[in-house]
Amino acid sequence: MPIIKSSKKSVKTDKVKTASNNFYTRTVKNAIKNTEKSIIEKNTEAAQANYKKTVQAIDKACSKGLIKKNTCARQKKRLNKKVKEMAN
After folding, report:
1. Radius of gyration (Cα) for the chain, nearest Å?
2. Engineering a disulfide at 2: which of 7, 22, 64, 71 sits with its beta carbon 3.0 to 4.6 angstroms away?
3. Confidence (pLDDT) at 71
């Protein structure tokens, strides 16, 4: 347990930031899984709806600095390719 006042405060703020970061990363992972699941099930409407939610979640995590820019672009590109192939 820290003794210095600023260290005590940083422990509290780190806990809040960690919870927030975990929420956004979990949201991205779950969104990707849901999109891929609907692709496997050949459900076009659900896949497109889930893809939109996934892109929003990925962009949000990217803007927060949780995922690197190129990683975001790669994930979106791969999902988009799968959704388009399924639609055809």
Report:
1. 17
2. 7
3. 97
Contact call for residues 67 and 28 (beta carbons, < 8 A): yes
Exposed e or buried b for every residue in 38-60, given b needs 16+ CB within 10 A? bbeeeeeeebeebbeebbebbee
pTM of the model: 0.87
Coil vs helix vs strand at 2: coil
- pLDDT for the residue 1: 85
pLDDT in tens, 20-66: 999 999 999 999 999 999 999 999 999 999 999 999 999 999 999 99
Please give the distance of CA 21 from its chain centroid, rounded to a whole number: 10
Distance CA 62, CA 34 (A): 19
